[in-house]
Amino acid sequence: MKTLIGLEIHVELSTKTKMFCSCKNEFGKPANTNVCEICLGHPGTLPKINKRAVEYAVKAGLALSTSINKKSRMDRKKYFYSDLVKGFQISQDEIPLCRDGYIEIGPYGNKKKIRIQRIHIEEDTGKSLHTEEGETLMDYNRSGVPLIEIVTYPDISSKEEAREFLTILKQTLKYIGVSDVKMEEGSLRCDVNINLVDGDRKTGIAEIKNINSFKAVQKAIAFEEKRQKEFLEKGIVEVKQTRRWDDLLGETKLMRTKEEKDDYRYSYEGDLGELELSDEFIENIRKNLPELPGERLVRFIKDYGLSEYDADIISKDLNISRYFEETLDLTKDSKRTANWIISDVLRNLNENEMESDELKFTSKNLATLINYVKEDKVNTNTAKKLLKEFFLEDVDIEKVIKERGLIQIQDEDFLLKIVEEVLAENEQSIIDYKNGKDRALGFLVGMCMKKSKGKGNPVKFNEIILKKLEEA
């Protein structure tokens, strides 16, 4: 039995204005304040295409390895929803802007291609707001916002692959700066098409809508796989249908039987004419594409000697990858820098529920901690505590270290005196060590650190203790 999954991803483009008018493209403004006669569909108004939106769409297409159609056209997609004021949506049908791309998923050296069928441009719809009194209020601020719709082939086989595809897609779109891809604000929305095949038998395709997080995508796929498997085993054949994901119940719910393409009654959008792109326009966008996540991953492995695991984690996020390289410029130690970012910086971001662009602990501060530990000026535990303490602040960490007197004492006479005091006070630990209890050594080092108020060098304490125990 095989699961076939295709995704339809709607991405709002981060242009300053809407797709076909000059209204501002802003999130979170009071309802129905960013509207005009064009995006409200008043009779006699004419749309005018947003050149920057086309540029962003081409940029996304190139980043996702698609072919760009130099000639495409806009079409009217006619169906009734309350959030479509005109009664139709301006979209693209038979001649989309981009065709035949792909994203590679899976481990480095063993990638699987998930094919992208098409990327087309269109306008977003308004937003329905349902009150507790049973009323439906309409906010048309979102109506007319530029969208790209990315449609994959059914090459995805599991919920894990779906999440990885979406993660890489989100990273790529953010890298190239065409969208903020904030699912919580509706900038990235995903529909899942799924059915099961077992030899000659197969289930009807279900399109699942209203999925607002990658976690919910995985849950919806898992639920639908189980539901369709039961129908397949019972020999029940379902027609194509549209379902919605109910996050509270953790299940999909039937909305309607799936519309066929003819139900949309596509027709040519004569008010806009054909969209023609020059070779120069496309090539200029191609030349100015930034380094993409996959390319950066390979470079981090090749140039910095990072493991595939470390390079993958760091290169996924544009802000973190830049932070890594800024810190590395000051530490000249790629592996140690990667370890600190993965084990401490990312963990503290997660614990504080922060995004990488909210990071306040500067790369200079991180480099200071790494270099001080590397040079045995500050012990590792102290450095990690400092990072955690000042993670949410923009301070001079070197100044803090000096003001608190945290630089480790290297003077061997001072350290020897403390070791002699600790050994004299802990004769039983000496006996335990000589009887093969290695933990006694760690205890003695810990007591030395305590007596030195954390200022002693634990490595040197360890060396001096061992030398003394051998002499005893």
What does this structure look like?
The protein is of the alpha+beta class and 472 residues long. It folds into three domains: 2-284, no CATH class; 293-403, no CATH class; 412-471, Orthogonal Bundle (Arc Repressor Mutant, subunit A). 40% of the residues lie in helices and 20% in strands. The chain has 15 helices and 17 strands. The strands form four sheets. Strands 1, 2, 6, 7, 10, 11, 12, 13, 14 and 15 form a ten-stranded mixed sheet that branches. Strands 5-4-16 form a three-stranded antiparallel sheet, with no helix packed on it. A two-stranded antiparallel ribbon has the order 3-17. α5 (293-304) packs across α6 (308-316). The model has no long low-confidence stretch (mean pLDDT 90).
Write a concise synopsis of the structure shown:
This protein has 472 residues and is of the alpha+beta class. It has helices at 51-63, 159-175, 214-234, 279-287, 293-304, 308-316, 318-331, 334-351, 363-374, 380-389, 397-403, 412-425, 427-434, 439-451, 458-471; strands at 2-12, 67-68, 71-73, 75-78, 88-91, 98-105, 112-123, 127-130, 136-139, 146-152, 188-198, 201-202, 206-211, 241-246, 251-257, 267-268, 274-276. It folds into three domains: 2-284, no CATH class; 293-403, no CATH class; 412-471, Arc Repressor Mutant, subunit A, CATH 1.10.10.
